[in-house]
Write a structure and sequence with these properties.
- The chain contains five helices and six strands.
- The protein has about 120 residues and is of the alpha/beta class.
- It has a single domain, classed as Udp-n-acetylmuramoylalanyl-d-glutamate--2,6- Diaminopimelate Ligase, Chain: A, domain 1 (3-Layer(aba) Sandwich).
- The chain has a six-stranded mixed beta sheet with strand order 1-5-4-3-2-6.
């Protein structure tokens, strides 16, 4: 899947990075808790979130993320967009909720970041 595919699937609007829509993506993470993102993500991925604050940008920079997807039609302010642009991030917004956005992308083949085995609770 490419970021451009994600834009189509989510009926999203591109806020930054129109020139990078052919970038392939393999995994995504959805969270409004940046501490969870930092705990679970260790690869270049897509972040799906409803937060539009500076913490999202700092987290993206620390993890070298490829793309930010803002849900529920949220659009970050100019300061956030400028910081994202400096990092070379693709930023899109969709009217879908986080749950729906994840479901639509999963149905089309995008998977979540791998969960560490110690978090598997099936045997407990």
């Amino acid at each position: 899947m490419t970021i451009g595919d994600m834009v189509s699937i989510l009926k999203a609007r591109v806020l930054l990075g129109e020139d990078k829509l052919d970038t392939p993506v393999y995994t995504a993470c959805c969270s409004d808790l940046m501490s969870d993102v930092l705990a679970f993500v260790d690869e270049k991925t897509v972040l799906i979130t409803g937060l539009t604050n500076p913490h999202v940008i700092r987290t993206s920079e620390m993890l070298d993320l490829k793309c930010l997807v803002f849900v529920r039609g949220k659009v970050p302010n100019e300061e956030i967009l400028e910081a994202a642009d400096e990092q070379g991030l693709v930023v899109i917004t969709t009217k879908a909720t986080a749950f729906s956005a994840c479901g639509m992308l999963y149905a089309e083949g995008l998977r979540g970041v791998p969960v560490p085995l110690e978090w598997n609770t099936e045997d407990k």
